[in-house]
Amino acid sequence: MAILSQYRPISGPQTEDSLIADQLDKIDFKILRLLQADGRMGNAEIAKRVNTSAATCHRRTQRLFEEGYVSAVRAQIALTRSIEDLW
User: Fold this and answer.
1) Of 34, 60, 64, residue with least CA distance to 46
2) How many domains does the chain have?
3) In this structure, what CATH number is given to the domain that contains residue 82?
4) Is the pLDDT confidence value at 68 over 80?
């Protein structure tokens, strides 16, 4: 997926970025940027930041997962901690 913070509509031949732009609107991109920055952010906080209701935000987030725009939410392990601390 393209880097979302650098999104700009593209005219001319269809590219991955322009195909995504045809299917997603500004609110969807805001949701994706927020999840990319903090995958643990709750639905209520995302809804507040994108100025939608919690129900609308939940439906949009679910659609982004179902349609494959979000493939996973992962934890980044701090490698500075010892292995014993992780287990």
Assistant:
1) 34
2) 1
3) 1.10.10.10
4) yes
